[in-house]
Design a protein that fits this description.
Strand content of chain B: 15-25%
Membrane topology (chain A): Multi-pass membrane protein
Oligomer: heterodimer
GO molecular function (chain A): electron transfer activity; FMN binding; heme binding; metal ion binding; oxidoreductase activity, acting on diphenols and related substances as donors
Shape of chain A: globular
Main location (chain A): membrane
Number of domains of chain B: 1
Largest sheet of chain B: 8 strands, mixed
Order of helices and strands of chain B: EHHEEHEEHEEHEEEEHEEH
Helix content of chain A: over 70%
Strand content of chain A: under 5%
Helix content of chain B: 10-25%
Subcellular location (chain A): Cell membrane; Membrane
Number of strands of chain B: 13
Structural class of chain A: mainly alpha
Number of helices of chain A: 10
Distance between the termini of chain B: 39 Å
Cofactor (chain A): heme b; FMN
Number of strands of chain A: 0
Number of domains of chain A: 1
CATH architecture of chain B: Alpha-Beta Complex
Order of helices and strands of chain A: HHHHHHHHHH
Distance between the termini of chain A: 37 Å
Structural class of chain B: alpha+beta
Number of helices of chain B: 7
Radius of gyration of chain A: 19 Å
Chain lengths: 200, 270
């Protein structure tokens, strides 16, 4: 049963649903008195969540032995980038009123924005090179390049921890999940390579 | 209408008021949770009657006073103040209350009273936010003012807004309102006022001293590590027509308070 693969349109719609919900909130005036902040935080949270979903697919494959999870990895990764880009755009348009000079000032002077922007910059080439054509053209280099997603995830969690004012509960939950996902890869990969080492 | 005979303060701002539902549903009161909507959801559990306030330290008449004792001699006044949050948003609020200085004078501060220290209620049974793990804040919430700041006619004790009793999420039954300082200085749900001779510790300063100073005067020229302080979003704001206004030094109250800081480097004493 290749359910994950077969239900691809469902995953597509599920990942899109936060954006649809946000549009609904905008149209129905349901964002509260400070809509700019609400929108920026909403998009940032979903960018993080979808990046974490993307990063969970390989560990899921390693655990279950089923390769079908990889079928939705590109889609989820692109969704993470989609929400991250909207997050950045909403910050620039709604919070800064399109004052580019304020954006540069924030990127230079406010460390949590610096690392958040850096995370987006790391994700950008990954999104650009996600087409089949680019995968073929880049060959081995593609895999190397796309390891950048680990760096992006570290920057994203740093961004999230740094911007928390006092309550670290939420960032710590996401950090724990990230560490778990990284650990699963390491354990499974070491387990996989061990017999080879033993045969040497 | 809880304060029918309230006086009208002649210096109130004539800027558009922030609607009641926004003032009461968009709050920073971390004792009830860290999200803006949390206090409105959870502060119903705050018991404001009976309430008492300890007044001690460098005063001739220390003691524990009931809320009735505290309020009785004062004539209530409505003052419309700008409220500027350090997070770069602001509101215009019609408070009801009385001057802090009038309250303090009743207890005869002595010559040792150089500062005033305030404490918020600290009861996890009533305040679910106090039970959250991984908080960098040390409870109870404490704040402070220099005595001359506290005696300035603008420093105010709020007991209501929009002519109604103070909602719990806004700091019932009594809170400080210091309109020329960032909002977090205006400590809510006060249970203790102590007159002291040294600068008292303040909550956000303890949590992140490089971000929040003791004075925390609204100042567009002193940048904050998290938010540019040059502008503010006046709430309610809307997405496509954001209501930005330029932030003013001392939140526009320079005429009344600038003399308190004469000769002080405001970038150093932020």
């Amino acid at each position: 049963m290749e359910l994950i693969k077969k239900l691809k349109p469902i995953w597509f719609l599920l990942a899109l649903s936060p954006a649809v919900y946000l549009v609904y909130l905008i149209v129905t005036d349901g964002l509260g008195p400070d809509p700019a902040k609400t929108v920026v935080e909403f998009l940032g949270t979903w960018a993080l969540r979808l990046l974490w979903v993307t990063l969970s697919l390989t560990p899921l494959k390693l655990i279950t032995g089923s390769g079908q999870f990889i079928a939705i990895r590109r889609m989820m990764g692109l969704y993470a980038f989609f929400y991250a880009s909207l997050h950045l755009a909403a910050y620039l348009v709604f919070m800064l009123g399109l004052r580019w000079s304020n954006l540069w000032e924030d990127i230079l002077e406010r460390p949590y924005i610096t690392v958040g922007f850096a995370a987006w910059l790391v994700l950008l080439p990954l999104a650009v090179t996600s087409t089949n054509k680019m995968i073929r053209r880049l060959g081995k280099k593609w895999k190397q390049l796309h390891k950048g997603v680990y760096l992006a995830a570290c920057l994203v969690i740093l961004h999230f921890i740094w911007l928390a004012k006092s309550n670290l509960l939420e960032p710590i939950i996401y950090l724990t999940i990230l560490i778990l996902l990284f650990a699963l890869r390491l354990i499974k990969q070491t387990a996989k390579t061990k017999p080879v080492v033993a045969n040497d | 209408e809880k304060f029918p005979g309230r006086k009208v303060w002649p210096s109130s701002t004539d800027e558009a008021l922030t609607p009641y539902q926004d003032i009461t549903r968009y709050n920073n009161f971390y004792e009830f949770g860290t999200k803006k909507g949390d206090p409105a959801k959870h502060a119903g559990s705050l018991i404001t009657d009976p309430w008492s306030v300890i007044i001690d330290g460098a005063v001739e008449k220390p003691g524990t006073y009931t809320l009735e004792d505290i309020l009785k001699p004062h004539d209530f006044e409505e003052r419309i103040y700008r409220l500027r949050c350090v997070e770069a948003w602001s509101m215009v609020v019609p408070w009801v209350g009385f001057q802090l200085g009038d309250l303090l004078k009743r207890f005869n501060p002595t010559s040792k009273a150089k500062y005033v220290a305030f404490t918020t209620l600290n009861d996890p049974e009533q305040m679910p936010g106090l039970k959250l793990p991984f908080s960098s804040i040390e409870w109870p919430y404490v704040e402070g003012l220099r005595i001359d700041e506290a005696m300035n006619p603008l420093a105010f004790i709020g007991v209501g807004l929009y002519g109604k009793a103070m909602p719990p999420q806004n700091g019932a039954p009594l809170r400080l309102v210091v309109p020329w300082k960032y909002g977090f200085k205006s400590i809510k749900s006060i249970v203790k006022i102590t007159l002291v001779d040294k600068e008292p510790p303040t909550t956000w300063n303890k949590s992140a001293p490089n971000e929040y100073g003791f004075y925390s005067n609204v100042n567009p020229n002193v940048s904050h590590p998290r938010w540019s302080q040059k502008r503010e979003r006046r709430l309610p704001s809307s997405l496509f027509n954001p209501n930005y206004v330029e932030t003013q030094l001392f939140n526009g109250y320079a005429e009344q308070v600038a003399h308190l800081y004469k000769g002080m480097d405001l970038a150093k004493y932020y």
